[in-house]
């Protein structure tokens, strides 16, 4: 097993641990199509909520911090970002820094909505994403993603109700 495989597994364990602390579950995706994990959320009585949160994982021993130290720069597949941008449910990109055992994240659709990343780099194979080091993936991040998922699910339901 290579070091890259080890830290990739460590990144998945880090996310799963945080999700479990929130009472959520995580399933690993065996075939890599840009998404490595899917997080399922539950109501207080233990029943699974509608929809899930997809998570794209990136792991590194040597993150590329910006000069001011406020962001980690990471190259991602443009096709994965384009696919994520079109998804109705939240997708998170989690960057795991194995050297400090810390994970950082962005909500991909929100990130792309605020930037012209894809306008400039849509024809390129990869694009650079800047993940704020202030946005650690912890229990509050998992809960926020769950709230965004539930809010989006309600909005879709309300739109469908208006159409009927």
Q: Write down the Rg.
A: 16 Å
**Major sheet: order of its strands?**
1-2-3-6-7
How much helix is in the residues?
A: 25-40%
Task: Round the mean pLDDT to the nearest integer and report it.
Answer: 91
**Which residue ranges are poorly predicted, with pLDDT under 50 across at least 5 consecutive positions?**
none
- Largest β-sheet summary: 5 strands, mixed
List the secondary-structure elements in sequence, H or E.
HEEEEEHEEHHEH
What spatial form do the alpha-carbon principal axes imply?
A: globular
Number of alpha- plus pi-helical segments:
5
The count of strands amounts to 8
Indicate the structural class: alpha+beta
Q: Note the quaternary state here.
A: single chain
Distance between the termini: 54 Å
State which percent range the strand residues make up.
25-35%
Describe this structure in words.
There is one protein chain. By secondary structure, this protein is α+β, with helices and mostly antiparallel strands. The protein contains 5 helices and 8 strands. A 5-stranded mixed sheet has the order 1-2-3-6-7. The termini are far apart. The relative contact order is 0.18.
Task: Name a few traits of the molecule.
single chain; 164 residues; alpha+beta; globular
Question: Quick gist of this model?
Answer:
This protein has helices spanning 3-21, 78-85, 108-113, 117-121, 139-163, and strands spanning 25-28, 37-40, 53-60, 64-65, 71-77, 91-97, 102-107, 126-132. It is an alpha+beta fold.
């Amino acid at each position: 097993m290579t070091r890259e495989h080890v830290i990739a597994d460590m990144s998945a364990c880090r996310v799963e641990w945080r999700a479990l602390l929130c009472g959520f579950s995580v399933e690993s995706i065996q075939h890599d199509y840009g998404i490595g994990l899917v997080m399922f959320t539950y109501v207080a009585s233990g029943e699974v909520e509608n929809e899930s949160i997809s998570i794209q994982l990136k792991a590194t021993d040597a993150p590329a911090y910006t000069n001011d130290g406020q962001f980690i720069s990471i190259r991602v597949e443009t096709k994965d970002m384009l696919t994520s941008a079109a998804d109705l449910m939240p997708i998170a990109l989690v960057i795991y820094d194995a050297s400090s055992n810390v994970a950082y994240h962005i909500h991909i659709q929100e990130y792309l909505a605020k930037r012209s990343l894809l306008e400039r780099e849509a024809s390129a194979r990869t694009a650079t994403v800047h993940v704020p080091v202030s946005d650690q993936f912890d229990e509050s991040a998992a809960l926020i993603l769950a709230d965004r998922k539930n809010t989006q699910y309600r909005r879709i339901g309300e739109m469908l109700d208006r159409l009927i």
